[in-house]
């Protein structure tokens, strides 16, 4: 059976937590949540997972710890956490906006608010998941800096944006000026597709690799254990 | 020792226009909705509301009671964007102090500890600094020399919270998985009004539940209101979950109609 785009996205999200050790994986969105659980079940067995409410749980849902908001915030400030947030807008230095579109004083569209994006980005690794890569999301300049990008971070001690995963590919900031770089393309996507859907000039190295293939065991876990109902296809088709 | 029981309307009668009011819970979880509804029946207005915002903020904003909001977000959780808050913001109807979730928490902690501010590693580099030009920074006096935001105390004139059980003296108990920050709201406030699902004898509180469920101390509480279903339609685990149908109705009904027809309908309370 062929691997779907949504499944490549699950793998690309899971890879964000590789090598993180005994830290809390905080995925926002279904595909990052599948990725975190897949990582925990395979190559990152020490990861801590949440039930999205107030408990730390094993992948099968068994509680193993207490995680009310007050303790969750201490995971953030203590740095033992790697979050994958969403972004209504993101720019070439990784500044992220989830607060509002337009002028902050009287927005065209009020969104969630800054939430924990400022504290996340200054304290623990912060990756992003964008299920629909478009020029409206990948913008030249965000309307409100919520998550702090490299050009605003001033070399802050604990600031790090390991990766951005979209439905088209994986991106990082491994360039001299920490501007966004295309790190891998999901199979079936071209560099031209990504450029077309991105408002800013993206760094594109020669010979961009494809996002890696899932192993047979990873595919089995995703299809039979983690998401047998196939909800992942609703987030990325 | 004083019996602090009162009705929701009696609690709200002690509030005045222009106050800074903290509201407990988180998003659409364990919000003191019976007290908020009582507030909407009163003529209190020009409020500065401090909240991890949910429908409490949406209703008060829709009714024009909020002059200024202090918040990191406003959400209904299962409905990510709060429609009435959103409409109020998009018509420029309220002032906003938009801060990060951790800054908000440090602000309450500073207030509860009678400190003017606490240093927090959050906000710098973000537009939270641009939209709050009054925020100041502080540099560590030790060798590291790091600069932090000096998060000012969020001192509250009054706080409203809702818990599962309480005694008549103002000892409040939560029985769900998350205390949110209701204890801190009460500690940061000059007066706190706590509603509960059920008032019980003090001895009853720890008969079956562990002592650490005793979240709110009576020394921080001014009034206790028995309000079964008092968080409805938000969740109040384990007594009840969120009433998603009622929340959807709230989110999709134009505010004047909702206020007229559904706000105080008996079916809304304790259903």
List the helices and strands and how they pair.
The complex is a heterodimer of chains A (237) and B (271).
Chain A: H1 5-14, E1 24-27, H2 30-41, E2 49-50, E3 55-57, E4 63-66, H3 69-78, E5 81-85, E6 89-90, E7 96-97, E8 100-101, E9 109-110, H4 117-123, E10 126-130, H5 150-153, E11 164-166, E12 169-172, E13 181-185, H6 191-196, H7 216-226, H8 232-235
Parallel strand pairs in A: 1-5, 5-10, 10-11
Antiparallel strand pairs in A: 2-3, 3-4, 6-7, 8-9, 11-12, 12-13
Helix pairs in contact in A: 1-2
Chain B: H1 8-13, E1 20-23, H2 33-41, E2 47-51, H3 55-62, E3 66-71, H4 83-90, E4 95-98, H5 101-112, E5 117-120, H6 128-131, E6 136-139, E7 147-152, E8 156-166, E9 172-173, H7 182-187, E10 189-199, H8 202-205, E11 214-216, E12 223-226, H9 244-252, H10 255-261
| Main pleated-sheet profile of chain B | 9 strands, mixed
CATH topology of the largest domain in chain B: Glutaconate Coenzyme A-transferase
* Helix-strand string of chain B: HEHEHEHEHEHEEEEHEHEEHH
Number of helices of chain B: 10
CATH topology of chain A: Glutaconate Coenzyme A-transferase
| Helix and strand composition category of chain A | alpha/beta
Helix content of chain B: 25-40%
Low-confidence stretches of chain B: 266-271
One letter per element, helices H and strands E, the order of chain A comes to: HEHEEEHEEEEEHEHEEEHHH
Structural class of chain B: alpha/beta
Largest beta sheet of chain A: what is the strand line-up? 1-5-10-11-12-13
Q: What percent of the residues of chain A sit in helical stretches (DSSP H or I)?
A: 25-40%
The CATH first-level class of chain A comes to: Alpha Beta
Please, could you describe this protein's structure?
The complex is a heterodimer of chains A (237) and B (271). By secondary structure, chain A is α/β, with parallel strands linked by helices. In chain A, 27% of the residues lie in helices and 18% in strands. Chain A has 8 helices and 13 strands. Chain A has helices at residues 5-14, 30-41, 69-78, 117-123, 150-153, 191-196, 216-226, 232-235, and strands at residues 24-27, 49-50, 55-57, 63-66, 81-85, 89-90, 96-97, 100-101, 109-110, 126-130, 164-166, 169-172, 181-185. In chain A, α1 (5-14) packs across α2 (30-41). The longest helix of chain A has 12 residues, at 30-41. In chain A, 51% of the residues are buried. By secondary structure, chain B is an alpha/beta fold. Chain B has 2 domains: 8-102 and 154-259, Glutaconate Coenzyme A-transferase (3-Layer(aba) Sandwich); 116-152, no CATH class. Helices cover 27% and strands 24% of the residues of chain B. Chain B has 10 helices and 12 strands. Chain B has helices spanning 8-13, 33-41, 55-62, 83-90, 101-112, 128-131, 182-187, 202-205, 244-252, 255-261, and strands at 20-23, 47-51, 66-71, 95-98, 117-120, 136-139, 147-152, 156-166, 172-173, 189-199, 214-216, 223-226. In chain B, strands 1, 2, 3, 4, 8, 9, 10, 11 and 12 form a 9-stranded mixed β-sheet that branches. Chain B has a 3-stranded antiparallel β-sheet with strand order 5-7-6. Chain B starts with 7 loop residues before the first helix and ends in a 10-residue tail after the last helix. Mean pLDDT of chain B is 96; it is low at 266-271.
